[in-house]
UniProtKB/TrEMBL annotation:
Record-linked InterPro entries: OxRdtase_Mopterin-bd_dom, OxRdtase_Mopterin-bd_sf, TAT_signal
Residue ranges constituting the Oxidoreductase molybdopterin-binding domain according to the UniProt record: 70-212
Transmembrane segments: none
SUPFAM superfamilies tied to this protein: Oxidoreductase molybdopterin-binding domain
Native species: Actinomadura sediminis
PROSITE patterns referenced in this protein's UniProt entry, alphabetically: TAT
Protein name according to UniProt: Molybdopterin-dependent oxidoreductase
Amino acid sequence: MNEEDAEEGAPVGRRIVLGMLGLGAAGVAVGASLQDRVSQALAPVGTIQNVLPAAGGFRYYSVTPSVDRRTAAAYRLRVGGLVARPRTFRMADLARLRQTALTRDFQCVTGWRVADVRWAGVALPDLLDAVGVSPRARAVRFTSFDGVYTESLTLEQARRRDVLVATQMEGKPVTHDHGGPTRLYVAPMYGYKSLKWLDGIELTEEVEPGYWEKRGYDIDAWVGRSNGRDDVPT
């Protein structure tokens, strides 16, 4: 998973995770000790990698045993598919685009939440405008440089201004453990949509289910009562 899901090989089944949701939701109110028990209960299922409680309430997960680190200087983001101007962005290129900042919760599908996280980066609509989206495009596919994890959004969802190619978190560059140098942050959806270690963005004709959607998770992962029409930053 990303910051809140799990691994390749023998992944956690959707029924098991959903069976833990009540316990996880209680943990949001009760505190870290219960959240730790949720992680411990999930840990023996399959081979979950890098499940680490951390300061600030985050839990770190990955779907591979290890992920290579990339420096900001070496980082490249490839954007292609159904676009007029395929392009590879360096960190400096991203910094030259319009910057968007927002403060939102990070909500895990297993129940834990980190409130009021400060994010900054390039709103995905601005990045898409920079490459020119083809009229044929209806969806956006994201890949991770872990080599395994993928995610997708409809083009309408990707055009929301609370969907970021995040380069900063809490006023600092996004760390490796949080998915840096850049990661996706999809504010109105559960964290498994916020792909870590963002490597590629591809415009496609239709939604391609991501890593966890292929294992039974919802493709449209709106948090709580969000229906995609809530207020977004401009």
